[in-house]
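User: Predict UDP-glucose 6-dehydrogenase's structure from this.
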Amino acid sequence: MRIAMIGTGYVGLVSGACFSDFGHEVVCVDKDARKIELLHQNVMPIYEPGLAELVASNVKAGRLSFTTDLAEGVRDADAVFIAVGTPSRRGDGHADLSYVYAAAREIAENLTGPSVIVTKSTVPVGTGDEVERIIAEVAPTSGAKVVSNPEFLREGAAIEDFKRPDRVVVGTDDEDARQVMRDIYRPLSLNQGAPLLFTGRRTSELIKYAANAFLAVKITFINEIADLCESVGADVQEVSRGIGMDNRIGGKFLHAGPGYGGSCFPKDTLALLKTAADNETPLRIVEATVQVNDNRKRAMGRKVIKAMGGDAHGKTVAVLGLTFKPNTDDMRDAPSLSVIAALQDAGATVRAYDPEGVEQARPMLPGVEFSASPYAAAEGADALVIVTEWDEFRALDLGRMAKTLRTPLLVDLRNIYPAAEAERAGLELVSVGKPRKG
Ligand code: NAD
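Assistant:
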């Protein structure tokens, strides 16, 4: 199959590289000439484990190429995937669909034959109808079909997720389009038996939002239970284990922490609420989730201040981990942004270390000093705060940390370290959802 991937970001680049690895011929298109230039030099514009090797091998095999010229990518394509961004529209939280519609128009102008146009971007219910209308207006005789195929990969494990998904959702009622999608995903179903779930287009669009909202609810639920644990002297990690062993609940997404962030949950929950409001069908559980999570991120800054004795003026806080999760350089809506803002607002100086996120973080975090290692960040600081659970923070030399810090205080917002280990090292430990000492 010949595939064009419009948008070469976290989703488009991984999807394009994986499709080419399945044996398809893939052209990845992006308007951002800098990204395409980097890719031509085999430099990845994003950090994602395994991606550089996957891209290099498929470029070498002649199945994967990059261009800024959409017409070149779309020419003779069996399927054109739209994987452009759908950020929150400034001001009102609706999904900004201008990139999707601009891409649809440009695709329609350059179609050379019947093709399947596949929306991989996360888009509100009804967007496929509008894409179809645009294609019909610009290219009335093209015979193109519009399909929804939302993406569920997670940054940091994106290749594995793409190649071994729990399911692939395809929304279309058109049998020819279904067949094209079966052919595209066949290598996947042959190898792993990953189910292809066919639905109507609107249903498929909603599945993506419902999935993200449910996961956001699950995280927020355990975060509130963590607060209750602190008040009543229970341990949230044991509560998570105890409820997660029930198959109806499941153990994933039950890690209490500083609140969800990232490029998807915050914007997608907001966009879903807008769809709900527009249709006069309020989603109160999701509304509460958004509100609770927003409050939580800054509250984590206050938690640090409280641990330092209630006054942050003139104090230095070392923050480990800035990206919204480990194994990515993505800083979009990262909880670290709110935690650090709360600390700075209270008069603290913040020193930070992150393995991959500093390039994106620097312009977003004015006033923060960036360090070359966790120990350099901790030098003479009044508290060490783990915000993102990168693997390299899981085996810190706590004894060394206790000596490096001015005040031996560790605020572990990811519950990486057991109390006994911190205590042995001479650190005072503040965790999330754990019984208080004394
Ligand atoms: P991104 O911002 O990393 O990438 C989008 C790319 O599209 C950019 O490189 C941009 O230059 C390019 N672009 C925009 N308009 C274009 C056009 N007309 N022609 C060519 N290129 C164009 O975004 P992302 O994180 O990859 O997300 C893309 C979509 O996938 C969003 O709808 C998002 O919600 C969804 N999604 C993201 C993830 C994730 O983990 N990032 C997971 C699942 C779904």
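The chain has two domains: 2-198, 223-430.
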